[in-house]
Specification:
The chain has strands at 25-29, 32-36, 43-45, 52-54, 68-72, 75-79, 84-86, 93-95, 114-118, 121-125, 163-166, 171-174, 188-192, 195-199, 204-206, 213-215. It is mainly β and 216 residues long. This is EGF-like domain-containing protein.
Length: 216
């Protein structure tokens, strides 16, 4: 049997920019290696010992969501039905007051009279705007808000960085940063949930600014 001290270990993890034969993290050991999925949150090592498989968070307590749980690679999202939006805990669906933000309603469905909010929806009442009326000569008295448009809340402030508020769906959705100026990346821009990252073509490596590519 050969003396271990006289042998030279082959570091399999040097291949594929440090990933070796692993999908994610490769840890070199004497005369072998092992793979982990520590760099891919929401995943675990598959039975083949090399690849990472998604953990479906929705299978446990519906992912903590009050309504629909949507599983994606690495994480799960809570989704609300029409007429609801996610609360600050990003798990509970609360009613959307469509009457307070009629811009979230398609123009052909907006109320021309009084708008009354209901749980998960709204209804319109025909007639004068709420708070308005007519004087003795039949002219509008100009109720509250007549002649001026009330300032609408900025729903995007409810969403975390990398997401924007979809007024139609009533929840926060991923913003594709790569759709604008290629995300600032010199070569490849890869969008991900809530973020993005740059990568380089074969024969190049990513510079320290995480955007530029340098020839090897």
């Amino acid at each position: 049997m050969a003396d271990k001290n006289s042998e030279t270990d082959v570091n399999e993890c040097l291949l594929r920019n440090g990933h070796g034969p692993c999908q994610d993290t490769c840890i070199n050991t004497w005369s072998s290696y092992r793979c982990t999925c520590d760099g891919l949150p929401g995943t675990r090592l598959a039975a083949d010992g090399h690849s990472c498989e998604d953990i479906d968070e929705c299978t446990v307590n519906n992912g903590g969501c009050s309504h629909t749980c949507l599983n994606t690679l690495g994480r799960a999202f809570c989704v609300c039905p029409e007429g609801y939006m996610l609360d600050e805990d990003w798990k509970t669906c609360v009613d959307v007051d469509e009457c307070a933000n009629q811009r979230s309603i398609a123009s052909e469905h907006r109320c021309h009279g009084r708008c009354i909010n209901t749980v998960g929806s709204y209804r319109c009442e025909q007639g004068e705007e709420h708070g308005g009326g007519k004087d003795a000569e039949g002219r509008s008295t100009g109720g509250a808000g007549d002649g001026e448009e009330q300032e609408q809340p900025d729903y995007d402030t409810l969403c975390p960085t990398g997401y924007h508020f979809n007024t139609t769906m009533g929840d926060c959705q991923d913003t594709n940063e790569c759709s604008i100026s290629n995300g600032g990346c010199q070569q490849h821009c890869i969008n991900s949930d809530g973020s993005y990252y740059c990568s380089c073509k074969y024969g190049f490596k990513l510079d320290v600014d995480k955007r530029s590519c340098l020839g090897k």
